[in-house]
Amino acid sequence: MKNINNKVAKLLKKSYRQAAYRTEESLSEISTQFDRLRDKRFCLGITGLSQSGKSTFITSLINQLMQHDRASLPGFSPVLGERLINVKMHPLEDKSLAAFPYAESYQRMTGSTPQWPHSTENISGCLLELRLSKLGRRLNPFVREHYSLWLEIRDYPGEWLLDLPLRELSFSQWCRQCSVQYAQSPRKEILAALPDEIKQLDPLAVVDDETLQRLHHHFIEFLKHCKDSANSLSLIQPGRFLIPGDIPDIAVLLFIPLLHINRYSDTQLQDAASNSYFKVCEARYQRYIKELIEPFYQTFFRRIDRQLVLVDLVNALHAGPAALADMQLALNQITESFSYKKQSRLLQLFNPKIDKVVFVATKIDQVLSEDHESVRQLLGHVIRKAYKSAQHEGVVPECEATAAVRSSHEVKHNGEQGISGIDCTGKPIGYFHPSIPIRVPDGDEWQVFTEWQIPKLNPPKGLSAANNDPIPHIRMDTVLNLLIGDKCQ
Hints:
The protein has 18 helices and 11 strands. The chain has helices spanning 2-37, 54-66, 77-80, 102-109, 158-161, 171-182, 187-191, 196-200, 209-227, 266-270, 277-299, 313-319, 321-337, 345-350, 372-382, 384-392, 447-450, 476-484; strands spanning 41-48, 84-90, 98-99, 124-133, 146-155, 306-311, 356-361, 398-401, 408-413, 416-422, 428-431. The protein is α/β, with parallel strands linked by helices. Mean pLDDT is 85; it is low at 19-31, 33-38 and 340-352. Helix 2 packs across helix 4. Strands 1, 2, 3, 4, 5, 6, 7 and 8 form an 8-stranded mixed β-sheet that branches.
């Protein structure tokens, strides 16, 4: 009897703890929604195309805010007006979302041998509390007229964002889209290196699992070659083939585009046997959308209030016209997936919309300061169609150029201005570069950029994590003001 009573007591205690935990969670969610309603909390989504430096950018953004009293932020109005009192990082309420590895990334950049943060391979986030004095009030230690602004930052792979347009495409439509893309340079040449089997596969043939797995492996290699620095293509789909994240059943990835689908009518394809390549790949493609893309969109992406899109424009310029055109296409597609609208905070709680989008060209420390404005104008030219798409929905996008970490300085050699820094082997390096155009080059104008060898620079030496040194940057204060300056009024 005593043992039974003990078991009952333990069950009651466990039940009480669970109920208390659920109550605490509910109260936390109510508080969060109340802050959003008062416009004191919002969610910033940060993403970018391949190699745009998302992890580095987020690390620097957090660092600039937390070290605002020593960082160089003259373009950030709360700092300029001496209204930003303190910035504190808090644990995320959403326990399913991994914490952004700020401390680890900052340590990597400030070590004895500075290194860049690891690339984004899954979703993560962090919550910052910005303590501000009220507008028009100077900081007075005896008058506590302060308030908190809560900034939630969400980080996710740009490849996952590129998957969102697939929600609007059937499997056969996607296959036809791929057939057109892969017939054009440089994908045509990359595809030529793959076995003929993947190019000649009969969609109506009975599927062989070993063959499909082998061809899927070759297709992933094809996507990797599209993404690598030699080609620098941006429109990589399906994105989870390269950065899968946490996937319970890897079989959902086992499909490929069928490149000879145009040989058959829609009726023939729909009447295909259930064990044909078409039907098997179609079923897995539909699972991919249902089990991976839709949950990402509904539970993560739709909660974003403001969106920042990072673009490695300098390296796309170096990669040539095909890479830049592919970047334009990728930017157009992803911005069409954003749900834009300026609306009241009450409506924003129930039907979230992105009320601001900022496009940022990264790594401008690779070029001279006299060319920084040209990079910004070139970005504006590249995103013109995406810009108009957002503007049509009532949101005016912003455009800026920045270096989240300034890893170079300017030098003069033989009367000519150049760039100097530390290369990836730790050795000093210097170089010159062609003038950056304010529009997309045409014809022979491309040659000077495709011949330009851009060295990879390491983070600057001499920063100390122990002393909480602010990270040197270019125009991060302007970007911060575009993203959250109006929220700090």
